């Protein structure tokens, strides 16, 4: 047996405790697969006294987290502290700078500082790995970085937030409204007390930006992810979608428009609730599951699905990274060296072609439908189907429509024509429809 | 740019031509991801004159395939000849023996000789890679060897044969019988003129045996895969299954019973038509698609899905292997060095617990149902539901039943009790039911 791979573990929340439990449970198996033992040398967290239901006695406790980066008896620092900046980033920079490999589950940090850290790691010839930062236990970073590496990826999309998917599929099953399901999800621990990052699409945006860089070989660009969450989706939207043959899923979607003489490539990145056709594999992904689709020019459609969060799945991904490092993988973290990634500008979405779902909450009086229809006509939006519903006991009237294929700009223009109209009782909701 | 990775390509069927097309199309992208160019030095096939719709002019033609293993200007031999033995195996052995890496899409050769070749490769410190041998373009060898490497895998199963899945899902959609759909599939090129390998489960067995070794760290054991195909499935079976909430899919299924003081571990490997519950992800996998599920103790259920065959997807997997090699991956082909794989005995299936579907084709006369029910009772089989159907215009009477959970041995005993009974117009059909 060769030299062990020695790790220092920073952050002992549920994921940190999960990693320790995994190494204690599957240690022998991990050793066989890694070709050498993976041992924990030191651990660090804010509160030493907290009971974490794992035996920390075998490991040295280190109060000063960042000092772990400088220990001679450590080969890899595992950062499970969280937060895009602050102590996590300080530790990550220190670890790589002092020649340690870094493994992290921190999607916010990678989305914001991944390229800087990758550049440092490439410079230093050490590994930087973040499988656990994207879609929990699903090996999708590996799938894109290596498995699909021979392909030009045409579209990359998926269900990237388990909380939102749990909420949407529960709304679908029960007919309940968003606010009630969110409350229930919070009570059950499926949603945070402050759910903003999840339900407004920011968490999914982090993952999408990381994957887009891997898939397209483009500079990671989280700032230009266009994110809309699921707060405004009504039970009635889900019902209308269902009657039209769709389910609603919050998707991250990315593609690239190649550059040319007129400038660099344009990267399209959007997190948005989509109407997904019932016969698409993603329509059957329910509960707190994640699923990623990469459509390659040679591979065709690849689907990776599994648990997107939780201590076990995330620990599985962290330790897979450690096994890779033990086996000698120190390749470019983003598949292509940072210096060679393509520069991108954000795509202009107005000329994108697609179908859309529009829902209007309108006053119950004559002429409203004519006003909507006229705005659509004047903006060049062609309507494929339309349902008017209500009013219910005291609810407003809803008008839901699906457009024919057309430019997104036309839909935007139609909404501008209607802006401020007294006929609208609430701002309209637009959702895109996933092309098969 | 560093030294190119130089490959020699043996076999220029659809997959071989696909690999050339991929390298010609995506060459620049492959170079960026691999960190160096991947160039084809020499090609070889039986018939030089054949038009393969790709430009072979840039490559040296070599009539003697095996001589490619000895060229000084070749780093990797890509074997796309096919066949478990013969020229493919001769070439593979020669390549590895002379210090070349080997990449192959040949599932039969790996299922039969994979461990021998892996042992040679480990000895010589060269790579042996076979992503394309299992499930076409889906990176499932990588998923098991690396992505799920931190897990003890509890069950491994999936849809491993696109031809069978095409036939079964078409039977489902059209209500047509097996023979008619097979004929149509042959006409459309979805099934071979001699479909035995596919429809009798041998091809799926090859893939299952390879994956089981990767997933469980056990010695590859194709000989003991218990394989049943789909020839005997009737449109009526699909109809009955549907009314009970299931679809029928040919699955490969494997798990391991740990060894103890009384002997080595026992490996369960079965290819069999299963009834899959409608709410299981595999129930929605239609057409010529493959899908593999690995259930890890930490990761939970991981699903990998995509095109299981075809020149594009297979080429995608072959070139992903080449990129891995270019990046320096020379690790153990089966994740664990061959010498350290666990020895196994085949599992005894009689004590396995599960539900089963049984279909009897019976004579239309009084007392037959009583005879069936008595046999079930006497063998200790408890019936959950039963449907008797027919006779149709001139068809026989069908009795389909689903058992409660019970030992497989009891079902076997029941069938033994009924063997030779004049009430049975045809041998009964047994299918297992996939546990969620």
CATH architectural label of the largest domain in chain A: 2-Layer Sandwich
Sheet/helix structural class of chain A: alpha/beta
Percentage of residues in DSSP E strands of chain A: 25-35%
CATH topology of the largest domain in chain A: Dihydrodipicolinate Reductase, domain 2
Total discrete domains of chain A? 3
Instruction: State mean pLDDT of chain A (0 to 100 scale).
Output: 95
Shape of chain A: elongated
Radius of gyration of chain A: 24 Å
Task: Describe the 3D structure.
- Two copies of one chain form a homodimer.
- By secondary structure, the first copy, chain A, is of the alpha/beta class.
- The first copy, chain A, is 34% helix and 26% strand.
- In chain A, the strands form three sheets. In chain A, strands 7, 8, 9, 10, 11, 12, 13, 15, 16, 17 and 19 form an eleven-stranded mixed beta sheet that branches. A six-stranded parallel beta sheet of chain A has the order 3-2-1-4-5-6, sandwiched between helices.
- The longest helix of chain A is centred in the N-terminal third of the chain and has 18 residues, at 107-124.
- The mean pLDDT of chain A is 95.
- Chains A and B meet through helix 1, helix 2, helix 5, strand 12 and helix 11 of A and helix 1, helix 2, helix 5, strand 12 and helix 11 of B.
- Strand 12 (300-307) of chain A pairs antiparallel with strand 12 of chain B.
- Chains A, B: InterPro entries: ACT-like_dom_sf (IPR045865), ACT_dom (IPR002912), Asp/hSer_DH_NAD-bd (IPR005106), HDH (IPR016204), HDH_cat (IPR001342), HDH_CS (IPR019811), NAD(P)-bd_dom_sf (IPR036291).
- Chains A, B: Keywords: Amino-acid biosynthesis, Methionine biosynthesis, NADP, Oxidoreductase, Threonine biosynthesis.
- Chains A, B: Belongs to the homoserine dehydrogenase family.
- Chains A, B: GO terms for molecular function: homoserine dehydrogenase activity.
């Amino acid at each position: 047996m060769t030299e062990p791979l020695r790790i220092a573990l920073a952050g002992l929340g549920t994921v940190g405790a999960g990693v320790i439990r995994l190494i204690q449970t599957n240690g022998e198996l991990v050793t066989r697969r890694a070709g050498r033992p993976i041992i924990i040398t030191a651990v660090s967290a804010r509160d030493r006294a907290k009971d974490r239901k794992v035996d920390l006695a075998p490991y040295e406790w280190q109060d000063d987290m960042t000092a772990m980066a400088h220990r001679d008896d450590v080969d890899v620092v595992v950062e499970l502290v969280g937060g895009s900046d602050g102590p996590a980033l300080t530790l990550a920079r220190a670890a790589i700078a002092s020649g340690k490999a870094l493994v992290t589950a921190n999607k916010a940090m990678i989305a914001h500082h991944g390229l800087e850290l990758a550049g440092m790691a490439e410079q230093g010839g050490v590994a930087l790995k973040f499988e656990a930062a994207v879609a929990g236990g699903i090996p999708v970073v590996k799938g894109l970085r290596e498995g699909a590496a021979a392909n030009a990826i045409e579209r990359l999309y998926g269900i990237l937030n388990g909380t939102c998917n749990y909420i949407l599929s529960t709304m679908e099953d029960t007919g309940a409204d968003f606010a009630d399901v969110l409350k229930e999800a919070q009570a059950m621990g499926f949603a945070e007390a402050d759910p903003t990052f999840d339900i407004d699409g920011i968490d999914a945006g982090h993952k999408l930006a990381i994957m887009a860089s891997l898939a397209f070989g483009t500079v990671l660009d989280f700032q230009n992810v266009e994110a809309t969450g699921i707060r405004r989706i009504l039970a009635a939207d889900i019902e209308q979608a269902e009657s039209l043959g769709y389910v609603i899923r919050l998707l991250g979607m990315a593609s690239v428009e190649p550059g040319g003489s007129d400038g660099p490539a344009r990267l399209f990145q959007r997190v948005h609730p989509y109407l997904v056709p019932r016969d698409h594999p993603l329509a059957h992904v329910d509960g707190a599951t994640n699923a990623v689709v990469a459509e390659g020019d040679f591979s065709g459609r690849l689907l990776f699905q599994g648990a997107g969060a939780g201590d076990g799945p995330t620990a599985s991904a962290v330790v897979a990274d450690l096994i890779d490092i033990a086996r000698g993988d120190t390749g470019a973290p983003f598949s292509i060296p940072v210096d060679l990634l393509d520069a991108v500008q954000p795509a202009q979405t107005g000329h994108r072609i697609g179908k859309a779902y529009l829902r209007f909450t309108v006053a119950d009086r004559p002429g409203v439908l004519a006003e909507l229809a006229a705005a659509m006509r004047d903006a060049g939006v062609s309507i494929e189907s339309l349902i008017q519903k209500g009013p219910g006991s005291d609810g407003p009237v809803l008008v839901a429509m699906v457009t024919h294929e057309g430019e997104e700009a036309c839909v935007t223009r139609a909404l501008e024509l209607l802006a401020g109209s007294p006929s609208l009782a609430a701002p309209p909701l637009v959702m895109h429809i996933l092309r098969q």
